[in-house]
Amino acid sequence: MKRVLSWVVPGGIFLAVIVALILGWGPEGLTAMLGTTYPWVAFGFVLLLGAFFHRSRVVLFVFGLSAMVLVFPQGTSDPTGFFLVGGLLVVSMGILALSQDRGVLSTGGLLQMMVFLVVFFFGMLLLELAPGDLASFLALNPLSPTWSEWSGLPQPVFLAFAFAIPTALLAAFFREGPVERGIFWSLLIVALALRYSSDPGLVGFGLTCACLTLGLSVMETSYAMAYKDDLTGLPARRALLRDLNGMSGEYAAAMVDVDHFKKFNDRYGHDVGDQVLRMVASRLSKVPGGGRAYRYGGEEFTLLFPGKNIRKTLPHLKEVRRSVEDATFTLRSWRRPRKKPVDPSAWRGAGKQKPKLLSVTISIGVADSSGRDPSPEVVLKKADQALYRAKEAGRNQVSK
Q1: What's the pLDDT at 371?
Q2: Is 344 a member of any domain?
Q3: 209: in domain
């Protein structure tokens, strides 16, 4: 459910609101009121947000949306410039969905900006010098009109969306990044704005929603960076402290440490050490009993059990300790090919040396909120002291 919500919020909600307004379900005159002033407020806010958090693609999208507002046909019936800028923005963002965000003033960010501005400059130059030729181009139908007439868009613009939307969707699916999801939803909203270009209020409201979708994706990314550990994918220490401070009543906390991790890291290298941490995190994330796993820092993790005391958590902690002990992984030979060969026995190192299996163990100390001082700091300190006792007693065990 959490993953579904991360896909739907906020872009899907904005899109649903716009569809509802198109169907006439909203208050009369709402789009006209929201679509005149608020776009520039949203553009300015998201522009600053994207620049501050080094999201070059967001900044470029805001520039493109601003250009769409500037060329929108106020009082005229010729939407050629509006469709041109919209099409250029869509193609550009489809390509940028495959790239990475850069700092706006970094070399990569400036390069993205330069290419983006050059494309728009020549597009606007063509609109100024040969508007008739551009209108003829937008009227082309290289495919059967039945392919695109349902969209209400000129076929060249429809084809731009046919390229950009699947590309953005694939980027969002494989990277699972908030900005990639934001680009996907924003493109869908821009498509509606172009489709209903005869309604100035709906266009302004739609472009505002497209901008805010990306702005909120920047905030979601920043939140994830602060509360999620990149290496293991577990919630980070800040998330643990937030959840602990929100605890009330009975709960238990367990401190977990990978045994002899420094020696292991020094012997096999940091890459293998990272594999170990990811493996341990994966096992801890599956702890039974309603426990939540966090990366505390270094080779230390924390398990939090709301509504449970030490006695109720001990069986679950012993089970997860055995799970880590039983897990093994293969140490890659430096001569082993990166890609699996068609005939594994054919590569030169085959048969000469058996692959080395590695395993690790963990020590666990647990405490609960019973006692004179149930504050989170005291509970964590008691769990840490119990962890120390587990290590002193020989490691690979649970102590309370």
Answers
A1: 73
A2: no
A3: yes
Q: Is residue 342 part of a domain?
A: no
Are 187 and 321 contained in the same domain? no
* Domain total of the chain: 2
CB-hemisphere CA count at 13 Å for 92?
26
The amino acid at residue 177 is: G
In this predicted model, what pLDDT tens digit does every residue of 179-235 receive, in sequence order?
999 999 999 999 999 999 888 888 999 999 999 999 999 998 888 888 889 889 899
Mean pLDDT of 229-258: 90
Q: What is the pLDDT of residue 192?
A: 95
Element (H, E) at 153: none
Q: Are residues 102 and 169 in the same domain?
A: yes
Question: Which pTM was predicted?
Answer: 0.76
State the maximum Cα–Cα separation within the chain, in Å, rounded to a whole number: 85
Amino acid (one-letter) located at 147: W
User: What range does the domain containing 294 cover?
Assistant: 237-337+349-399
DSSP class of 260: T
Structure tokens at 361: 């163990």
User: Would the pLDDT of 389 be above 50?
Assistant: yes
Boundary-marking domain end, from 166, 200, 227? 227
Catalytic member of 149, 176, 220, 299: 299
Q: What is the pLDDT of residue 258?
A: 94
Query: Does residue 117 sit within a domain?
Result: yes
> Does residue 273 register a pLDDT over 70?
yes
Q: Rounded to whole angstroms, how far apart are CA atoms 109 and 100?
A: 10
Identify whether residues 246 and 177 lie together within a single domain: no
- Listing DSSP states for 4-71 in one string gives HHHHHTTHHHHHHHHHHHHTT-SPTTHHHHHTTSHHHHHHHHHHHHHHHTT-HHHHHHHHHHHHHHHT
Q: How far apart are CA 356 and CA 200, in angstroms?
A: 67
Residues 6+ apart with CB under 8 A from 231: 274, 277, 278, 295
Residues 76 and 112 in one domain: yes
Q: Is 325 a catalytic residue?
A: no
Q: Return the residue matching tokens 């426990």.
A: 291
8 Å CB contact between 98 and 175:
no
Q: What pLDDT shows up at residue 103?
A: 87
